[in-house]
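Handoff note, outgoing to incoming analyst
You'll be picking up this chain. Sequence as last confirmed:
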Amino acid sequence: MTDVLAELPYAHFLGLTSAMHDDSLIVTMPFADKLIGDPILPALHGGSTAALLEFTAIAEIARVYPGLHLPRPINVSIAYLRSGKPVEVRATARIVRAGRRVAHVTATAWQAERDQPIASLSAHFLMDIDNP
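Most recent structure output, in case you need it:
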């Protein structure tokens, strides 16, 4: 499996890394001061959390369908469930359904406890139809 995150400049800027754990791809975003959106709380910026979730979904599609070019988002919906603390964030994604052209993916981000997510994603991605 090629590391699709290494090909994405913004993923590199965020410091995203990926690893397999119990047949699941887990993407980690280490904490950095540049990720703070509200310095008074302090809380992570929603854009960095959304990017983590979207890149996790893209990485999952690339893992399951290694012959495809990078999938392109058609629509993305993010639910912010709780404030992100200034610590590392992990995310995982699941392909709910995939056809020849479109994949529906969900992703979840958490910090201390996996069963207490800070944000979730539901998205559709256009898959490259030139490659089988």
